[in-house]
Design brief:
By secondary structure, the protein is of the alpha+beta class. The two termini are 19 Å apart. A hairpin with a 6-residue loop joins strand 9 and strand 10. Strands 1-2-10-9-8 form a five-stranded mixed sheet. It is 29% helix and 21% strand. Helix 3 packs antiparallel against helix 8 (310-318), helix 4 (181-192) crosses helix 7 and helix 8 crosses helix 9 (324-342).
Length: 344
């Protein structure tokens, strides 16, 4: 109890020293330049105040209807990063997109909409039931069995990459926002969506050019695919992502205390993962991300999510092709988690 009280006191002191919480989420610094070069101030941003959560279109998400992808698409190259089949393509207007196939396509599309709705940065992701890609090589390294005749691919996540460039990664333990409400809120969001794959390399720093008050350096969780399934790395990648049964049965809040709350995401990986000690103990070391979160910060996220209507929540899941009992199940479970946050 004394340790918790001391930790909370330190956070309050830091907040008082640097100013209001919103200011913490947007820091300015002068980017280094050559001798004699005039540099512009850079706004470092993790979170920004949402305009009107209740009016956001969660079917189209961050990119809106105006950026909705339209084929045909032409193959550029295969992306061998990560574990899912991915390919860089261009549409007829020359816009670059990244296709992702497999178990992450649907849950990542949904997750991007909820993260964006409450003020965090997210990719412009769209789910498309079927696309045709021309110019594919005879054989690709991954996902060959998911590509049909004529380059047809089903259940695809398309991420708009025009103007997007990952400059670096950021670390959960070491970043400009440690100790802030906004970073704690992002940790809560990862628990809400059951995103258990919280490796530092899944975080991105991106630079955005601004005409008004300088450039902006954006911090975001750039890979949200391991969501809406189990709370930790399971034996099967397919069953641990976008799995309604796993999401429904998973425990959301692990423990409540007077000042702090522990969430169950990320949880211990499946014991069979011990045969890969590096991955097992690496994931064991991520469990702190869902723990010791101030109750008021968790409730803050709950209050923002609470502004979403049932139709908006349903639209987010519809955007990824969920329908019928699966659509209603995910919607109901998500609403239940919001209710639990609001009670903290």
């Amino acid at each position: 109890m004394c340790i918790s009280r001391k930790r909370l006191t330190i956070v309050w002191c830091l907040a008082a020293w640097v100013g209001p919480s919103t200011a913490i989420a947007q820091k300015r610094y002068i980017a280094p330049g050559a001798a004699g070069e005039i540099t512009r101030p850079v706004l470092t941003e993790l979170w920004r105040q949402p305009k009107d959560i209740a009016s956001e279109n969660l079917f189209y998400g961050p990119g809106g209807k105006e950026h909705e992808p339209h084929g045909p698409f032409t193959f550029v190259k295969e992306d061998l990063d990560g574990t899912n089949p991915k390919y860089d393509v261009r549409d007829e207007e020359g816009v670059k997109w990244k296709i992702k196939l497999g178990a992450e396509a649907r849950p990542e599309t949904v997750a991007s909409r909820f993260v964006w709705a409450v003020g965090y940065h997210a990719n412009e992701d769209y789910f498309v039931p079927e696309v045709r890609v021309t110019g594919l090589p005879p054989h690709v390294h991954r996902g060959q069995n998911l590509i049909g005749a004529g380059g047809v691919m089903h259940n695809v996540r398309l991420k708009r990459e025009e103007g997007e460039k990952k400059e670096d990664i950021w670390r959960w333990r070491d970043n400009p926002f440690v100790g802030t409400r906004e970073l704690d809120g992002l940790r809560v969001m990862m628990a809400v969506i059951n995103n258990w794959d919280l490796k530092d390399e899944n975080n991105a720093i991106r630079d955005e050019k601004r005409k008004d008050d300088g450039d902006k350096r954006v911090y975001e969780v750039s890979d949200l695919g391991a969501s809406f399934g189990t709370t930790g790395r399971g034996i099967s990648h397919t069953k641990s992502k976008g799995n309604l049964r796993a999401y429904t049965r998973s425990k959301f809040i692990k423990q409540e205390r007077p000042e702090f709350v522990d969430f169950n995401v990320p949880s211990r990986p499946a014991l069979l993962i011990m045969f890969n000690p590096h991955e097992f103990f690496g994931r064991m070391g991520m469990r702190w991300i869902g723990r010791d979160i101030p109750r008021q910060d968790a409730r803050w996220i709950g209050d923002m999510l609470g502004q979403l209507s049932p139709d908006q929540i349903r639209d987010a899941f519809r955007s990824a092709g969920y329908e019928g009992a699966e659509l209603e199940g995910f919607t109901s479970d998500f609403e239940q988690r919001i209710a639990e946050l609001k009670k903290l």
